[in-house]
Amino acid sequence: MVLLIILVLLLVGLALASTYRLVMLRRGGTAAIVRALPARGHGGGWRHGLIRYDEDTLVFYKLSSLKLGPDFAMRRLGIEVSGRRNPDGDEFDIMTDEIGIVEVTDGAGSYELALDRGARAAFLSWVESRPSERIRRRPGY
Description:
Layout: H1 2-26, E1 30-37, E2 47-53, E3 57-62, E4 72-75, E5 80-85, E6 99-106, E7 109-116, H2 117-128
Antiparallel strand pairs: 1-2, 1-7, 2-3, 3-4, 5-6, 6-7
């Protein structure tokens, strides 16, 4: 009987976590396919999800995750775009030819973001329009 109660509580907890994640994803964002570098194999490691960015950070939510918060975040001032390319080979199994891949690095690691044409333009504009660290006001002045 105790085992059944524990099992029911675990299932309820899993249902609540998945509902919370669904609500977080339904708030909106930009569809993206992301993989961490270095990747295993040429076309492997890609994860579908949503990216959102505000004034200072970009956050990524995987579609297949039950984590309550974002799966990773990047600070806007730390992002460096280090390359751009089109999908090739077996990447066309999950992407179309209208998708472009942008390689970015920050202090935590390197990633590839696969975005459609409009989302890529918006992302690059967001990165390039960041304020310089030198002109940001320090608190207390």
